[in-house]
Amino acid sequence: MANLSIGFEPSVCSMDPHHHHRSPEYNSLLLAGPRLGPLKQAHARLVVSGHARSLPLTTKLATLAVAAGAASYAGLLAASHPAPDSFLFCSLTRAAARRGLPAAALAFYRCLLAAALPFSSFAFTAAAKACADLSALRAGMGVHAHAVLLGFGSDRFVQTALVVLYSKCGKLDVARKLFDGIRDRSVVAWNAMISGYEQNGLAGWAIEVYREMQVAGEAPDSATFVATLSACAQAGALDLGREVERLIVSERMEMNVVLGAALVNMYARCGLVNKAREWFDVLQERNVVTWTSMIAGYGMHGHGGEAVKLFDLMRQQGPLPNDVTFVAVLSACAHAGLVSEGRDAFASMKSVYGLVPRAEHYCSMVDMYGRAGLLDDAMQFIHHSIPGEPGPEVWTAMLGACKMHKNFSLGVEVAQRLIAIEPENPSHHVLLSNIYALSGKMNHVEKVRNTMIKRRLKKPIGYSLIEIAGVAHLFRMGEKSHPKTPEIYQYLEKLIHRITDAGYAPETDSVLHELEEEEREFALRYHGEKLAVAFGLMMTSGCTAPIRIIKNLRICGDCHLAIKYMSAVENREIIVRDMHRFHHFKAGKCSCQEYW
Length: 596
What we know:
The protein contains 30 helices and six strands. By secondary structure, the protein is mostly helical. Among the domains are: 358-460, Serine Threonine Protein Phosphatase 5, Tetratricopeptide repeat, CATH 1.25.40; 463-590, no CATH class. The protein has a six-stranded mixed sheet, covered by helices on one side. It is elongated and about 95 Å long. The model is unreliable at 1-7, 11-15 and 512-521 (pLDDT under 50). Pfam families: DYW_deaminase (PF14432), E_motif (PF20431), PPR (PF01535), PPR_2 (PF13041). Keywords: Repeat, Transit peptide.
């Protein structure tokens, strides 16, 4: 989550009972600043001059020690004072939370509790921030209860800190209730709510809160734009992403490294990889996130060569790659069939960078071998390179490869392993059913289908999204709830006639095999992707801009084939982002080169 500490708490100076004229001793502490060596010398002078028991000086010394990162030293100073007061522990709690020492902040908060001293608003805001940084929900709920008990429940600074806490811990219903109850919301509260939704995969809700913020007239800051751009990237909301970019440019907002990375990521994930690269090239400062977002962007669009080239450049002149960078590189190699480059990158992870591969890295390697048709290499890798028992994601990648290359006997074996690991996952049963059907074992298809009925397992529902004039339209298979349903179906019928004349024939293997041939063709005809494309073409006729679709699952073989023909007969570029990658359909061809 973006740094949301600014605006968390009221001014402390106005509440400081120790605020007094500055003595020479006090000035010597200010001169020492947050540096441990000079602070210890200043402490020695206080002891020698007989001021060691002065509470204001002890408070200042201990607070500066925390700012220097020496929380345990500050704790000793506080504990050695004969009469510590509330302000001392409140100041230490706040200083530790600000310095990024959340465990120490909670320890000072507990000292305040144990000493039964009065609390202040800024002690609760600091304690709640510390719990948020630690994602310590139970401790945070304790802080919340205590704040309510002592009458701070409606304090807007405390409420804002609690919104951040619950958002970070994924308790969005609680966060939203608190957020709605804040009378005078600061930008921090808005940011926490946008960020909370985005980081928990609810990009649509995040965008809605950003729109509410605009209506409320609250001025966004850099953190607002970072969270909103991340939500646009997740939802594929290109229009809003462009709107945010215009605001950043027109308001001459300082282009910090986090904001720059968010812009690169938004354009890469919304399908404009060249625009992402433009931003990447003009940024003064790039961190590992910026480089990784750009590499991942190339990978998603099937530009594996560009991804590897940029990764090589990163190794020469960029920051050290992290484990997420390697997921992006390996995935790019898998999607472009760059096996030797992928092998080299995987080997360098351990040998050059000392990184320990995770499930995602193993999965990408299996996916890479599998897509390239090297099924024996993939199985060898699973048995000899993965420590312990491979997880379901590894076997899922292997199963996809078996299906792609029609190795049905190995596919059945892999699917049965998957079902043994995750018996309640309907996707595994569906894949096994399709493998049986493709190999002509219809009696086994029936058995799998009966098992799914008995266990009440349903395959995930696919949907496709298209945004027209800033409004998102969602289509499922056979969707009938759209207000323009009759026109969409009529348009799609004409379109299917035209592509059939051009040579399209439905790939009925793409549908679950319990349907009869005729029913399968009917089901394919009204897949969400086709309805979304038809709607997009219908609503933008005469326009030359690409049609952009987002699909929550992997695009099926038949829709992939149909959309290639649609791009040719309509002379329009159609861009589909599915759960794995981007497909750029143009003039009857797809950028994935049948490799998805």
